[in-house]
Every structure is written in C-alpha cells, then in structure tokens.
Design goal:
By secondary structure, this protein is mostly helical. 54% of the residues lie in helices and 5% in strands. The protein has 19 helices and eight strands. The longest helix has 29 residues. It is globular. It starts with a helix and ends in an 11-residue tail after the last helix.
C-alpha cells in the first residue's frame, strides 16, 4: 500500500512539476483541500478565458477528463446560449405534480411565505402537441415496461421517478425563478439530511475531501489506472460512491448559489445578491464549488452523447416556423459547446463482478432522492428540486443505461419524454448560471471595503470552525458527517 502511494505521488509530481511551479499555491482548484484563506481563494480567482492548451492549467476536475480552464473559458458562451434557450416556449413550460404527499414522513412544515408560491399556466395556453393527453399517448410506456406507485412511475432504465402525466400542473419556469424563498428550519433540514444520510453510501464531505485525488496522474489518457488500483481502500476511494456524493453536493451548492444571488432583504423587500450568504454557504468550502464544475461536465457529456437525438427532436409547437427553427439552432449551439466541455469517461464506472449490483444500488438511491422532493414544504423549491433531480437523473440514464443503438433517433424516436428533455437542459442552465453568478460575486467582493472583507472572513471562519467541531465529534463516534451541509 505504502509503495503504491509513494509511486503515485512521484508519478503525479513528474507529470505536473512544471504546472506546480507556475501555479499559485493553495488554489481552490488544486487537488489539496483548501482550509486557509479559502474565501479569498474563491473570490479573488481570475477565471480562465482560454482553454487549457494555451496556458498552464490549474488542474483536472477529478474523475473527469476535463480541466477547470476549459469549463471557465467556455462557460460565458454556454450560459448565453442556454439562457436564451430556456426562455423559448418548448423549454419554459414544464408539467409537475407539486401536491403529492411525502412518502417517507408526515410533512407539516409548509412554507407560508409569498415567495414559496408558484404561478401555474392554464392548459389552454399550452400548444396541443405538448399537452398531457397527447404526450401520454405518444410517450408513456406500456404498463409491463414501467413500475408504478400512486402519481408517478419509473422504467428499469430510469434513475428517477417521473410524474404521471395525467396529474399535475403546467408551470412557466421563467415566471417562477429559483431564488430565496425564506424556506428554512427543521423541514428544510430534514429534506437535506434525508438526501445525504439516508440515500447515500455513507461517504461524507469530510471523507471525500480527505481521500486521495488520483485524477492528475491519469488525466492525459484515461481514468482507469489509478482509480482502479488494487491497493485502494474501497471504503474511501470507490469511484461510484465518490461520483454519487459529488453529484448531490454540486447540486446543493448550485442551489445555494442561486438562493444567495437572488436574495430578498426581508426588512426592505428588495432583491439583490447576498455576498455573506454565498461566502458562508459556498466560498468558505471551495470543494463545494468544485462539485458544481463536476456536475456541469457530467451534464454536458450527457448532452453531447445524446446530441444526434436532440438535433432530430421535434420542438414544433409555437405555430411559427421561425420560432421552432430558432429553438433547434440554439439546441445545436449548446450541443457544439457540450462536445468540447463534456469530457467525462462514463465507461470507467460500474465495471467488475459487482457492477450490476452497484449500479442498481446507485439507481435506487437517486430514485429515492427524486421522491424526497415530494417532502419539500415550499412549492417553488419543490418545483425546482423536481426539475433538477429529474435533469440529473436523465443525464445519468443517458450515460449509464443507453447504448449507441438506443441513442439512434431513427431507431428510437421516443427515447426521452418531453419532460426529461426540458429538465436536462434547464438543469444544465442552472449549473452554468451558478458559475456565472460566482463571477458576479467576485466583482462584488472586489468592490467591498477591506474592513467589511475582514468581517465577512471572520464570520465565515466561525461558521467553518463550528462545523469542523461537529464533524470531529461525529467522526470520533464513527458516523458519517453530514452536519456541514445542513443549514
């Protein structure tokens, strides 16, 4: 074990010694967990404007074949394309059942704040070809191909529960933006606790952050080697478990970023970015920001892989040829960027003699996460939770369940439901927008007075110290720590 560890360290050093000399120490994008000056590290970072091949890279995104610079250099263009795309009629209308009862516990913590409410759309405003009655006839699989429970179903290939099209409301996502609602307290904490504790493999943020990061060794060609080394402690380095945690944590960090950027001052009623909120929830924990990058690469890989299907998809429904044609062209633009950014080797996961069992366990865990969304006591939070867990679940299905034949739009024209396509693109937009908002927070930080900076850093240090104390206590009791993500 020791010999393998020394070999890995030496190999990583030889491969990246030039980059290490030029790179600033303790970057939040480095392989080492940053726990000193982390707030400044995140907020004073200058995003790359050119892909990695034109400058010294800060390093790869672990368990992917992409680096941070590539994501940063393309994100402005990706965000612009996605921001326009999700406002088109096809991608802004979404049908969801927001009033199904929580299947795991009796939920009484409903949010009474005005911002928790949503505005629905009457079915008469929805183009006929997108209405539930028509989509049910075209998309809903036969009963022998789906597993049903009241109000929703899943197919064996699905990583999430899908709402039954016969129930639910139509929502204009652009009229119900994801932002601060005031939904907090025991109800919100219980939801996140269930997601992290009851539906994961026991890996915690602490365990993930302190485990070795093998990606720098294998980035140039493949992730297979070191990640699958025989001497690895499977309880700490199992790739599938690490990927699962990164997906959930990245999604949580992205949601937190949106809440903090579109924050309502409950005293004045004004909406504005809340820098302190972002620092305490994300910037003080740089690894959380790294997981947003990870999720973005994961979803762009899914979009790139299913690109031919999305290019052949029928987006018609606006009644104007130009509008439908513009939507298709925007989709193709996003696919083009995704083919550059989405460097994720899905073939490395779920291999070996226990692959089928591990994949089914992974799948069942994520299905449970999608069902937990019915326990969220805020309608708007529940809506966006359903959209984004469905979007990630769709990406996972594309990467791990569909072979090349299944992806052929000529052989499988109903591969994805309209809801899955809408959720996939909107979730990718959420992640891209989060990185855009991070850069906006950096601009705010640059204009902040030094005395205020020191106050914010001091407050963040107290939050981190408090959570680290709880983590240490939890680890000493040999229980996985999830306190760091419960607020």
């Amino acid at each position: 074990m020791l010999r393998q560890q020394v070999y890995s360290i030496l190999l990583a050093f030889l491969l990246h010694s030039g980059a290490l000399e030029a790179k600033e120490p303790q970057s939040f994008l480095s392989d080492t967990l940053v726990r000193k000056d982390q707030v400044q590290n995140v907020l004073e970072h200058q995003p790359a404007k050119e892909p990695h091949c034109q400058q010294v890279p800060t390093g790869p995104i672990e368990t992917t074949l992409c680096d941070f610079e590539t994501v940063e250099s393309y994100n402005d263009e990706l965000y612009t394309q996605l921001h326009d795309l999700v406002q088109t009629p096809f991608f802004k209308y979404y049908r969801a059942d927001l009033y199904r009862e929580c299947p795991f516990w009796q939920e009484n913590g409903y949010c009474m704040n005005r911002e928790c409410a949503i505005t629905t759309v009457d079915e008469s405003e929805i183009p006929p070809s997108w209405r539930a009655s028509e989509l049910s006839r075209l998309e809903l699989p036969s009963e022998d191909l789906r597993n049903t429970i009241p109000g929703c179903y899943y197919r064996d290939s699905d990583f999430c529960f899908l709402d039954d099209l016969s129930e639910g409301d139509y929502v204009d996502l652009t009229a119900n933006p994801e932002r601060f609602t005031g939904y907090t307290g025991p109800s919100a904490h219980r939801v996140w606790a269930s997601i992290y504790e009851e539906n994961c493999f026991g890996i915690s943020e602490w365990a993930l952050s302190s485990a070795p990061n093998p990606a720098p060794v294998t980035l140039p060609d493949s992730m297979t080697g070191v990640l699958r080394s025989e001497g690895a402690d499977s309880s700490r380095t199992c790739l599938e478990k690490r990927v699962y945690y990164k997906i959930i944590s990245g999604l949580h960090a992205s949601i937190s970023t949106h809440i903090c950027y579109e924050f309502m001052n409950q005293t004045t009623g004004e909406w504005s970015p809340n820098l302190e909120c972002f620092i305490n929830r994300v910037a003080a924990y740089p690894e959380r920001l790294q997981y947003i990058y990870f999720d973005l690469v994961l979803l762009t890989r899914a979009v790139a892989r299913i690109g031919p299907y999305l290019s052949a998809y029928d987006y018609c429904g606006t009644g104007t040829h130009k509008g439908d044609d513009d939507t298709l062209n925007q989709v193709k633009n996003v696919i083009g960027i995704a083919q550059t950014v989405g460097k994720f080797d899905e073939t490395v996961l779920f291999r070996g003699e226990n692959a089928a069992i591990l994949k089914e366990e992974f799948k069942q865990h994520f299905r449970n996460v999608t069902r937990i969304m019915d326990c969220v006591g805020c309608d708007k939070c529940r809506l966006w939770g359903k959209v984004q867990t469905s979007g990630v679940g769709t990406a996972l299905k594309i990467l791990f369940e569909l072979d090349e034949k299944a992806l052929d739009p000529h052989l499988n024209s109903n591969l994805l439901s309209r809801s899955e396509v809408v959720a996939l693109i909107n979730t990718l937009h959420r992640l891209s927008e989060s990185l855009y908002f991070v850069n906006e927070f950096r601009k705010i930080w640059a204009e902040t007075a030094q005395s205020e900076e020191q106050r914010l850093i001091h407050e963040a240090e107290k939050v981190v110290a408090s959570e680290d104390a709880v983590k240490s206590l939890t680890v000493s009791r040999r229980q996985p720590s999830t306190s760091s993500i419960l607020r």
